[in-house]
Amino acid sequence: QVQLEESGGGSVQAGGSLRLSCATSGYSYGSRPVAWFRQAPGKEREGVACIQRSNALTSYVDSVKGRFTISQDNTKTTVYLQMNSLKPEDSAMYYCAATSGGSCSLTSADMRYWGKGTLVTISS
């Protein structure tokens, strides 16, 4: 059974940094992309970043480019989201998700597996 577990959320002041982790198991991660999404109260879930293991190709939503970095560990079972220069509008529940396809996507409908989320709160 595929499992995704997020960790690393917390509360920081604007301008600070956090690193989120997504541990994967029961998943042929080696050939599948993994993405980070976020959802703030009253807003739709938004794709933030995606990484494709086969060629380390990454993609980001415009609002986080230059501030967030998605990466993976050497075993390719954990995906990270390094978040720098955080802003209050980055506050949300952050989820990692895995597709059933072979290409990176920042679209919720393309995701087959979801973690339970980790909360990020940025104060001004």
Q: What's a quick, concise take on this entry?
A:
The chain has 124 residues and is mainly β. Helices cover 0% and strands 51% of the residues. The termini are far apart.
Please state the overall shape, judged from the principal axes of the Cα atoms.
globular
Separation of the first and last Cα atoms: 40 Å
Q: How many distinct helices?
A: 0
How large a portion of the residues is in β-strands, by DSSP E?
over 45%
Spatial extent as radius of gyration: 13 Å
Q: For the report, how would you describe the main beta sheet?
A: 7 strands, mixed
Note down, in words, how this protein is organized:
With 124 residues, this protein is mainly β. 0% of the residues lie in helices and 51% in strands. It has strands at 3-7, 10-13, 18-25, 34-39, 46-52, 57-60, 68-72, 78-83, 92-99, 111-114, 118-123. Strand 7 (68-72) and strand 8 (78-83) form a beta hairpin. The radius of gyration is 13 Å and the shape is globular. The chain starts with a strand and ends with a strand.
How would the blueprint of this fold be written?
Layout: E1 3-7, E2 10-13, E3 18-25, E4 34-39, E5 46-52, E6 57-60, E7 68-72, E8 78-83, E9 92-99, E10 111-114, E11 118-123
Parallel strand pairs: 2-11
Antiparallel strand pairs: 1-3, 3-8, 4-5, 4-9, 5-6, 7-8, 9-10, 9-11
